[in-house]
Amino acid sequence: VFPYKDVADFLEKVILNEKNGLARSYAILSWTDVLLLLNCVTNEKVAFARDKKETEKSTDCVLSWCYALLVFGDGNFLNELLHFLKNSDYQIRCATLALLSDIINPSNEKQIKNDVSMLLIAENIESVRDRAERFLKEN
Fold it and tell me: What φ, ψ does residue 39 adopt, rounded to 5°?
């Protein structure tokens, strides 16, 4: 196990320098998990996430930043994250469904389940349908 500072510094460098959006999005999610696990979410880290989200071009990364800000405690990003369920890229829809299990709670459960149910009405891609159905059964 690496000391927190080493992991956080490494992941922030990846976030700042990685050109591949998918790889960068995984770094964002890992960075978020490290900060949460070690209870090291600071105002500075939240500001970093907000700033990076505002300038991000990659859809994968914007989704990851919305997730990070939500789990850091900013519920204002829930609607933006749920909007990814309507994205034309089925992989983004699947990724969104995967993240929802980590953010669902009694205060947002009704909205999330409603949006996932709406997705199922029109969804034609089997992998997305399967993940959405499993989400609704498990939550």
Answer: 55, 50
Does the pTM surpass 0.90? The reply is yes
* Residue 8 pLDDT: 81
Residue 24 backbone phi and psi in degrees, to 5 = -65, -40
Q: Is the dihedral of CA 75, 80, 82, 84 positive or negative?
A: negative
Report the chain's C-alpha Rg in angstroms: 15
Q: Does an H or E element contain 62, and which?
A: helix 59-71
CA 89 remoteness from chain centre = 15
3-state secondary structure of 55: helix
**Under a CB-based contact definition with an 8 Å cutoff, are residues 95 and 129 in contact?**
no
Residue that the structure tokens 């089997």 belong to? 126
Nearest to 123 by CA among 74, 80, 76, 89: 89
Mean pLDDT of 25-33: 96
pLDDT tens digits for 115-130?
Answer: 999 999 999 999 999 9
Give me the residue spans of the domains in the chain: 1-73, 81-139
